[in-house]
Specification:
With 381 residues, this protein is α+β, with helices and mostly antiparallel strands. The chain has three domains: 1-55, Alpha-Beta Complex (Molybdopterin biosynthesis moea protein, domain 2); 89-297, Hypothetical protein af1432, CATH 1.10.3210; 335-380. 47% of the residues lie in helices and 9% in strands. It contains 14 helices and ten strands. The strands form three sheets. A five-stranded antiparallel β-sheet has the order 9-8-7-6-10.
Length: 381
């Protein structure tokens, strides 16, 4: 093990101990792979060192013009190295992370999270009035500069922070909810209210002990009962704030479901606020596509499949169909990986099953995933 400063760290190293800020906040747990964004985050939070295992993985030298690298005979020549799908996916992620646009997004994202933390704490502990104008201004640059849906999701994918899940999740839900509002052609004022509702929807979690929120294993019945109280806690924090009532209702109702299966009040669709219905979709999508200590993030098409399997009863038809259509359309023509390892391109969406489009393999053949039920999209490159 070695103790290194941020500037000495290399991409690919593995943290041997948790990376912690000077005030005790965990930026990354032990076992986390060092990434460019993590190094930048360490610098932002003034973390002076990290304990890592050994060296970064070495990349093979594959320069074809190196005489020393050439085998003596054709028979001795190893098979030409072909990038695995995992390498292709990682390369795309690294390209996003290395871009100037991402570095700008990253800094503004961290500042927005810090602002959210301050807002949550002051609203809960000292009951200060939430400055919604300032809160919107702190996140406005994050959505104004994103040219496409895929670009926004690429940015969010590279900002996954397990140890900061409450605040990063709220920020993501605010941004995703705003996208849904744009697809629904809401007026700007309503878009802003919807964004604020997403930003504040989980404010009640500040009253849940962190050891329960971040527990890696299965929650006990008592712990899950405590988690289910956070919508009421959130409403209690916001109820006397001079803000739009839809923001308060979203905090209270974002876990309610149209079929009455949600919590805390088992409301049905006729009693659930419309903005809360939208927030619910963004909330579930972000949670399922995020890394968790107990599972890897799900591919967007796997999440779409989950929504198609059970979502039409639980979520308002207008909102869920709009969301699924737009998310699937965002990846039209994208390269994806099937569960059998083959790479392909999406060529046509299936309007009755957005998770199962028609895809074209590298040999030019076409597969309709809706008729080949043993196959599904495992990852998006």
């Amino acid at each position: 093990m070695r103790t290194l400063s941020p500037k000495e760290l290399e991409i690919g190293m593995i943290a041997a101990e948790p990376i912690v800020t000077p005030i005790g906040q965990i930026l990354a747990p032990a076992g986390t792979e060092i990434t460019r964004q993590l190094i930048n985050r360490m610098k932002l939070y003034k973390v002076e060192e990290a304990v890592v295992y050994g060296d970064a993985p070495q990349t093979e030298n594959v320069e074809e013009d190196s005489e020393a690298a050439k085998p003596a005979t054709e028979e001795q020549a190893p098979a030409r190295h072909v990038k695995t799908h995992a390498e292709e996916s990682k390369t795309h992620s690294q390209k996003v992370a290395a871009s100037d646009e991402f570095r700008d997004f990253q800094m503004k994202y961290f500042l927005a999270i810090d602002n959210l933390k301050s807002v949550f704490a002051s609203a809960d502990k000292t009951h200060e009035t939430i400055d919604t104008t300032a809160l919107m201004e702190s996140v406005s640059d994050l959505f104004r500069a994103r040219n496409t849906i895929v670009e926004m999701f690429d940015m969010l994918f590279n900002m996954r922070i397990i140890s900061d899940s409450v605040y990063s999740h709220c920020l993501n839900v605010g941004l995703i909810s705003r996208m849904i509002g744009r697809w629904l052609k809401l007026e700007k004022h309503d878009l802003d209210i919807l964004t604020l509702a997403g930003l504040l929807h989980d404010i009640g979690k500040v009253r849940i002990p962190e050891d329960i929120l971040n527990k890696p294993g299965k929650l006990t019945d008592e712990e899950y009962a405590m988690i289910k109280q956070h919508p009421k806690f959130g409403y209690d924090i916001l109820k006397n704030q001079p803000i739009d009532s839809r923001i308060k209702k979203a905090a209270l109702m974002h876990h309610e479901r149209c079929d009455g299966s949600g919590y805390p009040s088992n409301l049905t669709d006729d009693l659930i606020d419309e903005f809360a219905m939208i927030i619910a979709i963004a909330d579930v999508y972000d949670a399922m596509t995020a890394t968790r200590s107990y599972r890897a993030p799900l591919c967007p098409f796997q999440v779409i499949a989950n929504f198609e399997e059970e979502g039409y009863k639980k979520y308002h038809t207008k909102y869920i169909l709009t969301f699924l259509k737009q998310i699937a359309a965002a990846y039209q023509n994208n390269r994806v990986i099937l569960n059998d390892g083959r790479g392909c391109n999406i060529v046509l969406l299936n309007q009755t099953a957005y998770s199962r489009p028609m895809v074209q393999l590298d040999d030019g053949s076409i597969i309709d995933l809706n008729t080949h039920r043993d196959l599904y999209i495992k990852s998006v490159i």
